Amino acid sequence: LGSRSLTGRCVMVTAGPTREPVDPVRYLGNRSSGKTGFAIAAAARRAGARVILVAGPVNLATPPGVERVDVQTAEEMRYAVHAWVGACDLFVGTAAVADYRPAEPAAGKVKRDGEGRTLSLVPNPDILAEVAARPKPPLTMGFAAETGDVEANARAKLASKGIDLVVANEVGEGKGFDTDDNTVTVLWEGGRRRLGPAPKTELARELVALAAARLDGTLQGG
Ligand code: C5P
């Protein structure tokens, strides 16, 4: 593969967590660092693509040459994604989008009153599945963080979300989240490839190369 394998292509990457407001000072969130998505955005840019990075709240510098859109909630991420993804050839969903959000965030700070409380939640949109369901979808790559039956669960995600490539990784104690090294298996209809263990930056480069090969129609089954 040439080092500029994505020249002339547009790549969109979602990264990081989302924050779903409970009230003006509190939110539901998760531990996603955003490292994987930022590394993929950087690798895609180095491969010559125009890169749009839709990022939740993370403490990471924007990779050189990457266009960044900052969002907080899943709804904001969805809006930003649909606003720009029509121009893109590849969509990589790495964001840890909150599955649920508070049904009605309180307008003012919730006060302690010594009583128990129940928080009512509603499901968030599946942004990756929505992109895959667009009339002219880009090539779609999703991630599947699983704690068991990793490959089977990840492969099921290909069909349930209607995506082209799924990157399966096992998460748990010291694995996957908030770490620098990772081992993943990329699965697609009729193929698979194991990558790593390697630093996330190296894996990102290999994932981008794999997606570029798929875009060019040169990806072999493996
Ligand atoms: O279904 P699950 O959350 O395990 O799927 C993970 C994949 O789907 C990731 O690629 C993630 O970025 C994407 N996703 C999404 N919107 C959601 C939930 C997950 O884009 N609401």
TrEMBL record:
<keyword id="KW-0436">Ligase</keyword>
<protein>
    <recommendedName>
        <fullName>Coenzyme A biosynthesis bifunctional protein CoaBC</fullName>
        <ecNumber>4.1.1.36</ecNumber>
        <ecNumber>6.3.2.5</ecNumber>
    </recommendedName>
</protein>
<feature type="binding site">
    <location>
        <position position="157"/>
    </location>
    <ligand>
        <name>CTP</name>
    </ligand>
</feature>
<keyword id="KW-0288">FMN</keyword>
<feature type="binding site">
    <location>
        <begin position="125"/>
        <end position="128"/>
    </location>
    <ligand>
        <name>CTP</name>
    </ligand>
</feature>
<comment type="similarity">
    <text>In the C-terminal section; belongs to the PPC synthetase family.</text>
</comment>
<comment type="pathway">
    <text>Cofactor biosynthesis; coenzyme A biosynthesis; CoA from (R)-pantothenate: step 2/5.</text>
</comment>
<keyword id="KW-0460">Magnesium</keyword>
<comment type="similarity">
    <text>In the N-terminal section; belongs to the HFCD (homo-oligomeric flavin containing Cys decarboxylase) superfamily.</text>
</comment>
<dbReference type="GO" id="GO:0004632">
    <property type="term" value="F:phosphopantothenate--cysteine ligase activity"/>
</dbReference>
<feature type="binding site">
    <location>
        <position position="161"/>
    </location>
    <ligand>
        <name>CTP</name>
    </ligand>
</feature>
<keyword id="KW-0479">Metal-binding</keyword>
<keyword id="KW-0285">Flavoprotein</keyword>
<comment type="pathway">
    <text>Cofactor biosynthesis; coenzyme A biosynthesis; CoA from (R)-pantothenate: step 3/5.</text>
</comment>
<keyword id="KW-0456">Lyase</keyword>
<keyword id="KW-0210">Decarboxylase</keyword>
<dbReference type="GO" id="GO:0015937">
    <property type="term" value="P:coenzyme A biosynthetic process"/>
</dbReference>
<comment type="function">
    <text>Catalyzes two sequential steps in the biosynthesis of coenzyme A. In the first step cysteine is conjugated to 4'-phosphopantothenate to form 4-phosphopantothenoylcysteine. In the second step the latter compound is decarboxylated to form 4'-phosphopantotheine.</text>
</comment>
<dbReference type="GO" id="GO:0004633">
    <property type="term" value="F:phosphopantothenoylcysteine decarboxylase activity"/>
</dbReference>
<comment type="function">
    <text>Catalyzes two steps in the biosynthesis of coenzyme A. In the first step cysteine is conjugated to 4'-phosphopantothenate to form 4-phosphopantothenoylcysteine, in the latter compound is decarboxylated to form 4'-phosphopantotheine.</text>
</comment>
<dbReference type="GO" id="GO:0071513">
    <property type="term" value="C:phosphopantothenoylcysteine decarboxylase complex"/>
</dbReference>
<feature type="binding site">
    <location>
        <position position="109"/>
    </location>
    <ligand>
        <name>CTP</name>
    </ligand>
</feature>
<dbReference type="GO" id="GO:0046872">
    <property type="term" value="F:metal ion binding"/>
</dbReference>
<dbReference type="GO" id="GO:0015941">
    <property type="term" value="P:pantothenate catabolic process"/>
</dbReference>
<feature type="binding site">
    <location>
        <position position="99"/>
    </location>
    <ligand>
        <name>CTP</name>
    </ligand>
</feature>
<feature type="domain" description="DNA/pantothenate metabolism flavoprotein C-terminal">
    <location>
        <begin position="6"/>
        <end position="211"/>
    </location>
</feature>
<feature type="region of interest" description="Phosphopantothenate--cysteine ligase">
    <location>
        <begin position="11"/>
        <end position="222"/>
    </location>
</feature>
<dbReference type="GO" id="GO:0010181">
    <property type="term" value="F:FMN binding"/>
</dbReference>
<feature type="binding site">
    <location>
        <position position="143"/>
    </location>
    <ligand>
        <name>CTP</name>
    </ligand>
</feature>
<keyword id="KW-0511">Multifunctional enzyme</keyword>
